[in-house]
Amino acid sequence: MTDEELREAAHRLLSGNLRQGVSPFDGQPYSFCVPSSITYPYQWFWDSCFHAVVWTYFDLAQAKEELRTLLRAQARDGRIPHRVCWDKRAIYPYRFYLHSRALLHPVRSQLVQPPVLATALEIVHERSGDGAFLAETLPAVERFYRWLARRRDPDGDGLVSIIHPYESGLDHKPSYDVVLGTAKLASGRPFGAAHGRPWATGTVLAVRTLDLWNRMLNYNLPLIFRLDRFNVEDVAYNCIYAQGLASLSRLWKKQGDPAKARLYDDRAKRVERAVLERCRGPDGFYYDLYSRSEKIAPVKTVSGLFPLILDDIPAAEAERLVKEYVLDERQFWLPYPLPTCAVGEPAFDPSFRSPLESGLWRGPTWVCINWFIVRGLQKHGFGDIAATIARRTRELVEKGGFREFYNPYTGRPHGARAFGWSTLVVDMLEPAKGRGRGRKSKRE
Ligand code: GLC
Fold first, then answer.
1. Ligand 1 within 6 A of CB of 376
2. What's the gap in Å between 169 CA and the centre of ligand 1?
3. Is any atom of ligand 1 closer than 6 Å to the C-beta of 418?
């Protein structure tokens, strides 16, 4: 498959997933891509950010529309839901009721997703050069980050907390087993897991119980944080947050507002420092923190590699992450890197049977994760490794199509078909071009 053919296939996919119309709920126009027509027929926050990035290759107007549609779902206080339903459906999946405060039409969830929005806006702006679009959308995008700082940092340490695993985008990631109290279940023994493999049913049930809990508390954030049931300072979430703040800073600079540029630069640096100081384990790996007392969830997942996307990670730290973790075959260096969980973890499960049996994000390789890490590796002077990951990601897509995730050993595709964000591979084809917006590495 040539690059051009791959791009054409991605374009066809996004065009097929495009949904346009006027919402019967509030009369607002919408124009966005569903992640997958059958499995995920609504708008998701971070999926839309990724779709916007890929649309820049085919149709800049649509890239902007994807972000505009997301912003139309913004609540008055600045929050943007993790999932939005724009068209009328008689029956919503039960999860919609659990994730919403509404009784009749639970069309907007109360959860959020990784704040990649400002970075997506920066990419769309860079490629479109459309100053009017930036002026139109930047204040709303900024309000979302202000909301996160105001409402999601109960201990004021700069790191924002998620209140539900789905907010990380990595729904059943094994580090949450520790927080949910299902670590033993997930390692597969007590309930006679099939074939001695990890067993995610317990985790999925615990997630549903948490859904009920949050719904019962009516998504009252101060109360949720006071009761401290699921309060996670997630490494990947916070690295993406820091990256978003840095994008905001650069965008305000472009808009000629040096005060705001400074403000968000300071905030980005503060979050970076907090990740590097608080989430780092004695082994140089980075871990999610949970509960008010900031306990370490001692499971190595791909989130722990996300400090590689930070602008100011010290060179020695980045090098250690790359040498001891990314490139270690007993950790993350598999034939099709990067698995979502380190190979040595008891919960690591590279194959997939069903969401209930295997859960999601417990081993397979996902394209959006590689997109982030590849950009981080490039930024810090690991271009060769970035190129290898990008090449193998391309192989996955060429062999298995644009699927939701892939077996990191065999490349076998799994999950949703015609899956939107797997088209990010298009943005990884020419990795070195137009990158390195952050600090240039000394090694470059
Ligand atoms: C799954 C993923 C989540 C994604 C959603 C739609 O729930 O875990 O990250 O946003 O699907 O693709």
1. no
2. 6
3. no
**Counting atoms of ligand 1 from 1, which one is nearest the CA of 420?**
12
Q: 404 CB under 6 A from ligand 1? A: no
In this structure, which residue's CA is closest to atom 9 in ligand 1?
169
* CA torsion through residues 379, 381, 382, 388, sign: positive
**Phi and psi at residue 169, in whole multiples of 5°?**
80, -15
Contact criterion met (CB below 8 Å) for 276 and 313:
yes
The answer to whether the CB of 65 is under 6 A from ligand 1 is no
Q: What is the pLDDT along the chain (444 residues), one digit of tens a residue?
A: 999 999 999 999 999 999 999 999 999 999 999 999 999 999 999 999 999 999 999 999 999 999 999 999 999 999 999 999 999 766 788 889 999 999 888 999 999 999 999 999 999 999 999 999 999 999 999 999 999 999 999 999 999 999 999 999 999 999 999 999 887 654 444 433 444 445 678 888 899 999 999 999 999 999 999 999 999 999 999 999 999 999 999 999 999 999 999 999 999 999 999 999 999 999 999 999 999 999 999 999 999 999 999 999 999 999 999 999 999 999 999 999 999 999 999 889 998 888 878 889 999 999 999 999 999 999 999 999 999 999 999 999 999 999 999 999 999 999 999 999 999 999 999 755 444 433 333 333
Concatenated DSSP letters of 216-266: HTTT-HHHHHHHTSS-EE-HHHHHHHHHHHHHHHHHHHHTT-HHHHHHHHH
pTM, to two decimals? 0.95
Residue nearest (by alpha carbon) to ligand 1 atom 4: 169
Measured between alpha carbons, how far is 79 from 117 in angstroms, rounded to an integer? 12
Question: β-strand 405-406 against 289-290: which pairing, if any?
Answer: unpaired
When the candidates are 1.10.260.40, 3.40.50.1100, 1.50.10.10, 1.20.210.10, the CATH number that belongs to 3-428 is 1.50.10.10
Residue 197 carries which side chain, given as an amino acid letter? R
Is the distance from the beta carbon of residue 360 to the nearest atom of ligand 1 less than 6 Å?
A: yes
Name the burial class of residue 434, with classes exposed (0-12), middle (13-18) and buried (19+) by CB atoms within 10 angstroms of its CB.
Answer: exposed
- Distance between CA atoms of residues 61 and 104, nearest Å: 34
Kindly list the domain boundaries of the chain, sorted by start residue. Answer: 3-428
Residue with CA closest to ligand 1 atom 3:
169
Residue 295 phi/psi, 5° resolution?
A: -75, 150
- Is 420 near ligand 1, meaning CB less than 6 Å away? no
Q: Which atom of ligand 1 is nearest to the CA of 421?
A: 12
